[in-house]
Write a structure and sequence with these properties.
Blueprint: E1 3-10, E2 13-20, E3 24-27, E4 32-40, E5 43-47, E6 50-54, E7 58-62, E8 68-70, E9 79-86, H1 88-92, E10 111-113, H2 116-131, H3 136-154, H4 162-169, H5 174-185, H6 193-199, H7 204-215, H8 219-237, H9 242-248, H10 254-265, H11 269-278
Antiparallel strand pairs: 1-2, 2-9, 3-8, 4-7, 4-9, 5-6, 5-8, 7-10
Helix pairs in contact: 2-3, 6-7, 8-11, 9-10
Keywords: DNA-binding, Transcription, Transcription regulation
InterPro entries: AraC-bd, AraC_XylS_family_regulators, Homeodomain-like_sf, HTH-like, HTH_AraC
Protein name: AraC family transcriptional regulator
Amino acid sequence: MSNALRLARGPFGRVALLDMDRPLVRHAHPHCHILLKVEGADTQFAVGNRIVPLTDESAVLINAWEPHSYSHHQNQPATIILALYIEPRWLGEFRPNWKASGAPDFFTRSVDATSPAIRRLTRQLAEAMVHQPGGADEHERLLADLMIAVIERFADWRGVPSSLRAAASAIIDPRIRKAVLWMQADPGAVSDMNSIAVASGLSRAQFFRLFEASLGVSPRVYLNVLRLERAVIAVSDGTASFTSVSQTLGFSVPAHFSRFFHDHAGSPPSTFRNVARLQSVDFETLR
């Protein structure tokens, strides 16, 4: 069963060390998302309409809101993956242009060759998370070094992506904007897409077409992103029961929430909460 081995969270977003032996459903994240192999079998992800390899010498690069899934093959050995979910605002503190890491074309390729420095920093961060789970400052320092190496190698960060100019001038249909605000206000209250389409004054087909044209993802994927990000916060930081969390997010049965979380985050919520709590413990103080 796939599990989170360690989790680090902070102003940078989050970093998960995942032991993966099962597929993940098609999903997206509002982050700059990088996947790096730590050890185990070579594997692969579906990014957009392409299958791309994750190996010792390749990284998978996923732009914010870009749909993707983990394509683990049956009977394939497990892979330990360092999954980075990085906030563009944090990256902007290094260089202003790096705020563009939230753009849909910050990475122009979904897979690229790593460097010895990236492989070394990946291993160092993974080892620090395992051996010093409470070392938040050290984790952030190593992550900063890793992200600098990643962006300088993989992104044309010196120029503002053309899509930002297009996005600045784009006008989202007001009916879609209203639907987005409804979803953001309470994703757990959204029972089905038909009701949102009708409330928006659109047919289901029109709603799906306009939504994806405006935001680059389907309404269902967008809603699931909102639910997952709230679930991550509730599971990591909160003490509420998973039954309560599932009800708040609109799941009628707690088992459905657990399956949703596992299929999107790569770990059961119980394991995710346990490793999140390790981050608040500095084992050096216990010696």
